[in-house]
Design goal:
The structure is a homodimer.
Chain A (H helix, E strand, L loop, with lengths): L13 H20 L6 H12 L5 H8 L3 H13 L3 E2 L13 E2 L1 H22 L4 H20 L5
Antiparallel strand pairs in A: 1-2
Chain A binds a DNA duplex through helix 4.
Chain lengths: 152, 152
DNA sequence: CAATGTATGTCAGAATTCTGACATGAGTCA
DNA sequence: TGACTCATGTCAGAATTCTGACATACATTG
C-alpha cells in the first residue's frame, strides 16, 4: 500500500499534530503540577475561579472542557478539602456561585507560576508574529469546528 | 482584582486556546464517529494500523497518546471482535505486531471518510500559507515542550 | 396565566483510563 | 559469560470521566 490513498496521513495531518501538541502540553503540565499534588483539571478549576469568581459548576465544566457531572465530583472534593466554598442555598435559581477560599488562593499561587513556566517554554523560539499567527489560526479552527455542529 | 496580575489569563493564553481547539476537534470527531459505533481512540488505533501495519501495542499507545495499558484493553476488545489480529507468539522478543483484518479495514473506511471531513471543516477558511504556518508552529510548540522534559 | 423549552445541580452506574507491579526478552558492557 | 539497563505485554485495582436520569428554576411564548 502506498503512503496515502484516501486516508488522513498522520505525518501531514494538522488534526493529528493538534492532538500531539495538546498532549505534550498536558504531559508537561502534569509534570510540574504533580509535585504540588495537583492534577490538570484540579488546577484548571482553581484558575478559572481565580479569574472569574462566582462561576457555577456548569460554567466551570465548560471552561475546563469536561461534563458538569465530572466537574461536580471535583468541586465536591475541593469543597470538602477547603479550597472552594459554595453557598448552601442558591441566591437565584439553582445556580451556586463558587469562590476560592484563602487556602485555595494560596494553593493556586505556586501552581500558576509552574504552569506559566510551561507556557513560556512552549512559546520559546517563537516570534511575536508567530504567536499572534498561532492565536488567530487556533481561533479559526475552533470557530470552523463549532460552526457545523448543528447549523449546517 | 484586575484582569491579570501574575496569572495566565485565559483570554490570551495560547495554552488554553490549544486545549480549546483540541477539545473542539475531539468533540467534532466523536460526533461523526458515534453513528459508526466508534470512539476516537478506537478510530485512532485502526487508522494507525492501516498506515503502519505491524505496530506493537506499545507503539500504538504512543501514537494514540494513551498508556500502553489502556491501549492493551482496547486491542484485546478489537481482537475479540475481529477487527485486529496478533500472532499468538512473538516472532522476536515480546513484541506482538498487530494487523487489521479485512473486517477492520472495512470498518475503518467509513470512519476515515468521516474524520477527513472534520479535518477539512477545521481547515475551512484557512489559506495554504496559514496551514503551513500552523504546521510549523505546532511542531515548534511540541519540540519546545518536550525539550525541557529531562534534558534541561 | 399556562405550557413549553432550556439550563442547572445532583445521584447512580458504566466505561475508560490511569498507576502500580511483575515477568520476560533484547541490548550493552565489563 | 554475567550483570545491568531498558522496553514490552499483561494483570489487578484505583481514579477519573462519562452517559443516563431526575427534579427544579428561569425564560419564552402562546
Amino acid at each position: 500500500m502506498s503512503q496515502n490513498g484516501v486516508g488522513v496521513d498522520l505525518e501531514t495531518s494538522l488534526g493529528y499534530l493538534l492532538k500531539e501538541a495538546s498532549s505534550a502540553l498536558r504531559v508537561a503540565m502534569e509534570e510540574v503540577l504533580r509535585p504540588l499534588g495537583m492534577s490538570v483539571t484540579h488546577y484548571s478549576c482553581l484558575e478559572l475561579l481565580a479569574q472569574r469568581p462566582g462561576l457555577s459548576n456548569s460554567e466551570l465544566a465548560r471552561g475546563a472542557f469536561v461534563t458538569r457531572q465530572s466537574m461536580n465530583v471535583l468541586l465536591q472534593a475541593l469543597e470538602r478539602d477547603g479550597y472552594v466554598t459554595r453557598p448552601a442555598e442558591a441566591p437565584v435559581g439553582k445556580v451556586l456561585p463558587a469562590r476560592l477560599t484563602s487556602r485555595g488562593r494560596r494553593s493556586l499561587e505556586k501552581a500558576t507560576v509552574a504552569v506559566r513556566s510551561v507556557e513560556v517554554r512552549m512559546l520559546a523560539g517563537m516570534t511575536e508574529a508567530e504567536q499572534s499567527d498561532a492565536f488567530r489560526i487556533l481561533q479559526s479552527m475552533i470557530h470552523s469546528l463549532r460552526d457545523g455542529d448543528d447549523g449546517a
